Amino acid sequence: MSTNNTPAKRKKLPACDYCKTRRVLCHPQLDGSCPRCLEKGVNCTTTPVIRRKRRTKAQLAESSGGAGSSSISPAEAPLPSAGNTVALTLPPSLELPAAIVEKLIGSFCSPYITHPLMSPSEIKTLLADLSSLQPQERVLLHCLMAFSSLLSMSPFVIGTEEVSAEQLLIFSTSSPLKAPIIPDLRQIGFQREPVFLQLWAEALWLANQEGIATNPTNVNAASCWVLGHIAQVVLGKGASPFNSAFVCHVRCLAEEGNLDDLNTVRYHWHMMGDVLGALTTGKSIQYTPNDEPLLVCHTPEPLEKLIRDSTTKSFTAGEAFRSIHGFAHHIIRLARETSENLTSVFARRQPLDESFLIKHFASLDLFHSFLIVELDQIARIVQQSHHNPLHAYYLRLCAHGFVASWGSLVLTIFEALRDRSLQFAFNATLGGSSNGFVTSLADDRNHERLQMHLRHARRLASTAAVEMYKALREVPSITPLLQHSELVKWTRFLMDEDNVVDINHEQHLQALECFRDAIQVAGFYCADRTGIVESVNEYLASSMKRISTRNDYSTGFEALYSFTAVSSINSLVPLA
């Protein structure tokens, strides 16, 4: 019997952690540290590497359920219509109870929340059978849930922290900013932020997976509008890639004849909001002048004729709603002219056109007259619409939207001229030439003319601030308060005392209080990190202290005057 005396082959030891981290050659030892670790004086440790066994194609097919089966991506996984939870296996993932999903989507079925492309009945079909949703419909479902999470008061969204009865009452109160006690809801905005951000991330992830921005359909257009609206509400950005995609989608659908059932009044209203959102943030306006006749199919009338018709006859509720077409058309026209000649990136690099400003201010004054007539018509109809609360609600909402749209336009013009004035002063300090008007005018003449137009814009903005705060007091619900960035802009405008020369002191303080209350209430949907509420409280306290000091001074002066007068009279009376 022969024996094999060949020694067994020695297995190579793995490199230690220190050498492996530094990617150098290691000489591991059976007992003790390697030479490098001994030299450096570090503890020589070796972490074992677990090598996974290679699997054959047959084993992979067997583990996945057969050679013909394939894994389902998260975007394709159906959402169950029954059960305790709806699993959203998306990065980042969040598990929502089925009841919460239905409640979030159901909020869009309320008659008080409108969507430009989908009616409440169409949205209800999304909840009919969640398991049979198409991928594009599933994207819209997630978009609606993300936006609804900004408005939901469910404990799943805002946490289990108790909400007081006063805080809950403000949601069901008509004219909430006229309530005797207006609660501070800003903490709720911070509480809902984690859930909202996760839902928003999931909606964006699904939207990118399905390519909704490049495939024009009604459902994809609705999803793009919701995502763009979220960016506008939360980030204060008036134009996002999804806004641009939405405009392209509806344009393609209209050219193909697939927007026949579009509610043109509602869509014109949303078009006006999108245009003003782009204007106030200095972005390009996506809608062209040809989009209105294509999408709305409305023949615009001159502003003078609209004013004449509004002043010579009494509108019905239907005529008041149809007047949105004329209002939106002229607001969009003025906004486009403002962007092209004053606020856009290209316009800011050009010399200021004074002839445009003169004509533009004349158009603004004329449009303001139309606004006043429209508000009077709506106020009269509201007083006669007690039998139809839904009509009264929409009319009051319409009045607030008219004033807010006008205010956004005027405030943007004022800010643009103010920035021009500051740039003029900066250039003058450096000794350079101004970038104001035509170069043939002297610099002092340029500055004088610029200040004249700035005073005109400030006067318009001051008037609009008073109209805004009065409209906020009459707002029928807290839903229109979603434009947080605009509320902050108006508050900062009023806190600059140079801007309120045309407002009496009482109106100034009342307007500041109203905008502060609106920001506190609007904080329920979005975390407010501006600190503007505390600044307003300090400003109001300082103003009240000055008033109190002035009253004490006046009282003391009157007392001194009375004492001096009595002393003078007594000095004239002869002693007995």
Automatic annotation (TrEMBL):
UniProt cross-references to InterPro entries, sorted A to Z: Zn2-C6_fun-type_DNA-bd_sf, Zn2Cys6_DnaBD
Native source species: Gymnopus androsaceus JB14
Biased composition (Low complexity): 61-77
Residue ranges annotated for the Zn(2)-C6 fungal-type domain, each copy included: 15-46
PROSITE patterns: ZN2_CY6_FUNGAL_1, ZN2_CY6_FUNGAL_2
Positions of region (Disordered): 55-77
GO molecular function: DNA-binding transcription factor activity, RNA polymerase II-specific; zinc ion binding
The protein's name in its UniProt record: Zn(2)-C6 fungal-type domain-containing protein
SUPFAM superfamilies named in the record: Zn2/Cys6 DNA-binding domain (SSF57701)
Domain of life: Eukaryota
